[in-house]
Design brief:
mainly beta, globular
Length: 195
């Protein structure tokens, strides 16, 4: 805590490590007076999966969702929360199956070439999947997108997992998760882009 200070354009936090240890930081916030109410920034333009709940499409469905509020609509609302609260994510916690899926119906054909999956990891019952892949609906069947390039190569929780592929036109796309051991999979947000 310190007295109010006027900063011109930069702020630096200096951390002194305890003897024989290091320090870590997951977030820093700087607060000051501002006119209210707070208006969050708009979502990034071009996200084909985004729906803040005011439109019919795109619509998210899933094979299973937890009973704690982790419904599919929260997986594409433009909000990112990697911490346990607020509950703004979809998870398959409690699913009886080794795989689950999260699907997006665009309502019309769209061109997609990249999917960003922000995996949720509570280091307990919900952890990054062993692997995940993408499928599109074609003639009433789900078929793999194929030729996917994953970055990072192995799914990681709490970070952006990007999948790129040759651009395709589809009206429905889903992410299929193969769960890791006894844990289940979850995402705080899924974004889809033309390129």
């Amino acid at each position: 805590e310190f007295r109010r200070v006027l900063f011109r354009s930069r702020l630096r936090l200096v951390v002194t490590h305890a003897a024989g240890t290091g320090s870590g930081l997951s977030e820093i916030e700087a607060w000051g007076d501002a006119p209210g109410p707070y208006v969050p920034p708009p979502p990034r333009a071009g996200n084909l999966a985004f729906n803040d709940g005011r439109r019919e499409f795109p619509r998210a469905t899933c094979s299973f969702h937890d009973v704690y509020g982790g419904v599919p609509a929260k997986a594409h609302d433009g909000r990112f929360h990697f911490s346990p609260t607020p509950v703004n994510r979809w998870t398959s916690y409690g699913s009886p199956t080794p795989t689950d899926w999260l699907a997006f119906d665009f309502g019309e054909p769209v061109a997609v070439g990249r999917v960003d999956v922000h995996l949720y990891d509570d280091r307990g019952g919900v952890q990054p999947p062993r692997r995940f892949w993408l499928e599109i609906e074609s003639d009433g069947r789900w078929v793999p997108v194929g030729d996917e390039r994953h970055d990072p190569p192995e799914p990681r929780g709490g970070v952006l997992n990007t999948v790129t592929f040759e651009r395709i036109v589809t009206s429905r796309l889903r992410v299929v998760f193969e769960h890791r051991e006894k844990s289940k999979s979850g995402v705080t947000e899924v974004e889809m882009w033309e390129r």
